[in-house]
Design goal:
With 182 residues, the chain is an alpha/beta fold. The chain contains five helices and six strands. It comes from Paenibacillus aceris.
């Protein structure tokens, strides 16, 4: 089983830190699960313009191949202007809908206000619904106050939610795989 963590931004480190922490927790609890981080800061993905993926001359095909080959996901984004990043939305627009069907997704977001957690409920979960993906019931929202000056997560509740999210996505993936659904 392969779990892909996706940090859906090209600026800032906090989403990547939260997603990597969740991946580390999965690996700690389940050494047999392969984990990988797709940090969009490390890739150049073109805007969707209707071409076939193979026609893009940057990392677009490679990134979509990474996503479609994974079994389940933890997806993180910062919240800008009350919404997910354009980078993450563009990434979703590139993915063929059938590629995520019946796959498990867990969500994490970071932001500057305490109300931005609602973006997970109002934007990310509906996108997962469009893809017919299964969504972990819990999620992680980390406010800027939950990090210290070194960008380390220092809030015990956030760390507990990360551990819970790691457990939930693995539990769901294993249960669905056992049932033959995934």
């Amino acid at each position: 089983m392969k779990l892909l963590g996706i940090s859906g931004t090209i600026i800032g480190a906090k989403p990547s830190i939260v997603v990597q922490k969740a991946l580390d927790e999965v690996k700690r609890q389940n050494p047999d699960i392969e984990v990988e981080l797709l940090d969009m800061r490390d890739y150049k993905v073109s805007f969707v313009d209707g071409r076939a993926l193979s026609a893009y001359e940057d990392d677009t095909q490679k990134v979509i191949d990474m996503i479609t080959s994974a079994d389940f996901y933890i997806i993180g984004t910062p919240i800008f202007q009350g919404s997910i990043t354009g980078v993450l939305k563009n990434l979703f627009d590139h993915i063929p809908p059938q590629a995520l069907r019946n796959k498990v997704m867990g969500f994490a977001a970071t932001g500057g206000t305490y109300q931005h957690f609602l973006v997970i409920e109002n934007q990310l979960k509906p996108i997962a619904g469009y893809f017919r993906a299964y969504v972990a019931p819990g999620y992680v929202y980390a406010n800027n106050d939950h990090f210290n000056k070194l960008n380390e997560i220092v809030d015990a509740d956030v760390l507990e939610r990360i551990a819970n999210l790691a457990q939930e996505v693995v539990f769901m993936q294993k249960a669905l795989k056992t049932e033959g659904t995934v």
